[in-house]
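Dear all,

This email documents one entry for the complex benchmark we are building for the journal club exercise. For each entry we list the sequence lines for every component of the assembly. Then comes the predicted three-dimensional structure of the complex as a token string, followed by one or two observations. Please use this as the template for your own entries, and keep the labels exactly as they appear.
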Amino acid sequence: MMVRLIGSELLKLVTVRLPAILLGATAALTVLIAVLIASRAGGGRMAPAPLDTAEGLTQVITVTNFGLILAMVLGAIVSSGEFRTTATATYLATSRRWKVLVAKLFAASLAGLVFGAVAAGAATATGLIWVSAKGFDTSLPAGTMLEYAGGAAVGAALLAALGVGVGTLIRNTVVASVGILVWALVIEHIGGGLFSSVAPYLPFTAASTLAGQALEGDAIALSSGAAAALLVAIAALVAVVGARTVLRRDIA
Amino acid sequence: MPVIEIRGLTKRYGPTAAVDDLSFTVDRGTVVGFLGPNGAGKTTTLRALLGLVEPTGGGATINGANYRDLTDPLRHVGAVLEASDFHPGRSARNHLRVQAVAAGIAATRIDEVLDLVGLGVAADRKVGAYSLGMRQRLGIAAAMLGDPEVLILDEPANGLDPEGVRWLRELVRGLAEEGRTVLISSHLLAEVAQTVDSVVIIDGGRLIAQSSLADLSGGIRGVVRVRTPRARHLADALERDGDGVAIVHIGADRLEISGTTPERVGMLAAELRIPLLESTHEAINLEDIFFQLTDSPAKQEVS
């Protein structure tokens, strides 16, 4: 039963254009930012560390933020996107709405894995090509780079699940998506900067910790396990609140 | 046992009741027209029946169970609710695939239902490029995916051209011949009069009438006009013949008779050897009855 529903949700994602556009945007924006950082690396006191150092290369290959953010936007689309289109058909086929929500959480997480992996792949490829073009030695072991890529994939998957909950609570896709962007790019950034003890517990910061990014300032990052557990807990909480409130409303 | 049972169904939105203590049943294998003017509460009733709208009071069941308690509901009930219930960027075939996968229905069924509604050629075009009529056909295809025994169609003729309306009528008749139960809503009685066995008429969320079409028109039988040299004799005989017969004398040889049938007037005249020089029957229009019952202005919009 649940396998059927997850399959149906995944089919919804691959039979319209928007998810592919978001994935393409993830790859393009990630490459752009990675190139910008790589081109400035080692350029002076305020610039990123040189690319022949582990610190410099890490900065380039972990710029997976667009994968994280757009995965969460995708999650919000997975849930909110149906309310002006196919909600009736979906709930006629599966009248227990929580089952649909659970299927959406899994489907969005799988899609999020892809977003995180594509972002990590794009950033890592850019960094390695740059390093080899400059004739540097690669300063990071393959295992570390894989660990960061895996972390980005898991972080994006969990943020996508969180996005499903957000899109359940906020049925308007545009409002939900803009809210996520504002939260990720503005609120969490400024709030985290002002209250560095809180920063590690904010969802995007926790996900970027998983992806291997260093925190700004003097904040101390959570361990990968703790960051993942925190994200699972936040995603589950938001989904349960959504299931008990907005999800019960009439579909008219 | 009725297939569909609506019991005291009430749905309030704030102080207004969209559906107000509504009860009716639909028997197995019948085609029932669910009629009422726009805003009468038809769609709310059907959405409550399908578990999409939570009733304020009462309930609605299909085969004795709430829709939400049916396992694999698409295999029991097919519903067409509104033509906008698609993603404009998804093709018709993919819409059906999404539904079929969720309901565990074999992919081979998709081509069958596409052919059934005549969308085979257009199946790979995006629904956004579809006309309203094509969307209605796609909705019907989706409803037929699970080969359900019960079909619930909400204003399925909306947006169909005359050819489409005829196609729909034949489709519904075919479904009925296969023994399926069909509940079909409309704000126009004429649209379904040729298709349905009986009607449920609501207005203001309340039941106005549930009856067969024959009974509905039988209540008011129209007017029989005759010309006969023995008008007085015929009038006396008709008045003795049955209750509710009303006769207006026009001149010496003309009668305007209501409350009976032209057949009865003719038989009685023959028995009494009264010659009828002229006889005409003016049937009451079903639509007029419907508008009388629902107090709607006779000039209801015609789609």
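Observations: Chain A has one domain: 2-248. Chain A has a mean pLDDT of 94.
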